[in-house]
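Worked example 2:
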Amino acid sequence: MEQNLADTLFDRFSAGRTPAKEDFNASKMFSLLEDPFGVWCSFHAPADQAVPETNRYENLKVRTDRHSRDAWIREHFPGVVFITATSDTERFQGTLKAMSEGQPAIANAALWNLPKNVYGAVNLLQRMEGGSSIFGPYYYRIVQFKRAHDLKEHYALQVSLLNHILAEIQGFTPRYSLVELKGKNMQVDYLEHEQRLTRELAYFRAIRDGKVKPEAHKPPKAASAPWRVYANKLMAETKDLQMLPHLSTEMRQCLKIYDMYSTDDVARAGLAKLQGLLEEPYASDAYYTSVAYLHHKPVLRATGHFPPPTKKHNLYFDFEATETFTKDNVSFVYLIGIWDKEEDKYVSFVAKTPEEEIKIFEQFYDYVKEPADTALYHWTDYEVRKMRKLAQENKHDSEKLNLLVSLCYDLKVAVNNAFYLPAPSFSLKAAAPAFGFQWRQDDCGAMDSMVYFTNWLKTGNDELLNKVLMYNEDDCKAMLFLEDKLKNIEVLNFL
């Protein structure tokens, strides 16, 4: 009887096929909300422009989360059935069979409603008594596990979609689903999210069917992989308004109403027209940045900020830090890298454990031989904030750390105050490439570095650490490269 019911449900909700490109996976809710242009690309961009990029950081988080989640489920739901399968079809069939059997809890489940083009994976289905479903005097509710501390918007909508699919299958709509967060759980009220869910699914269909083309994000992350490279290239080639820093969606829309669709259009419109449409400083920012693009040269914003002070010793430094993967580990700075301009070399200090973190800052301090004649250059205030925090936590080293802080000079602030750049933002990853700098590795960014470092600790494979060191060295050298370029390049001066 149970098997017949399971087979009937499978035939109905699979519609004789498996999930396909035109179907919406609940796990893609974040992409729909945060990267709709990437969703558009998956349907309408040339397929050969997709560039797969391994997200090592996310993969490590997922593996860590899965292990912790499964252990928690076994502890709190004795007798739980884990669905094991070699295909999506088998997983859905196994889920339906377990539901028909009335299992108390079903982990690693799958739910489909392919006639309505939706499907998704469920961490746990929990049997609840008292309702009347197609299976009998019980029903199931959704339990999802998230590594965040708070319930995010896309979590609630994702769970609500899974709840909607579940309701169609079992003929009973649970009002509440459960989301297990770090240190707490929260209920998601389906009725509170039903209308928003309907709108977002309609938005997906409009994107899929070519009725809507969302805006991309600002390069160098115009879209998520595998469409990041394509989207960045497209924004640059079309001189999209996303290439202008600071403008909001509403501001870009305002410019388009007045037939300004590209940075060239903005540059040719003139400052006076921009000032009639946008408030300051947005009008000047948009105009002079567009002029910088048009002439491939920086535009002087104000004097007195650049070049930075030069001393006897000039060090360009950057930190790499871990994040917390589980409740048992802590975040700490594991690498301090320095490009020594006068010595023309890269120097690094590595900490293997949180306890060694303060030691590499002591090594950093010791490397600064003549503080009065040394300048420490960095990009953004992260490094300074970190050293101030460590100074408060380590009274023994507070004098050394505060001295290091006193020698620091934020190059990003200096460049931002002095120039309009032909770049979509003042992040180092956007500003340095605008003048020709390239990082040597395509497969090692800030998040990848954490994973390589973690795996180096586990395996002792120095090739992994060397990738981290090369990435950090390039970060340090990018600052000096950009500084030298801006010192020597012809600058447009409208002052």
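The CA atoms of residues 360 and 437 lie 29 Å apart. The first strand starts at residue 24 and ends at 25.
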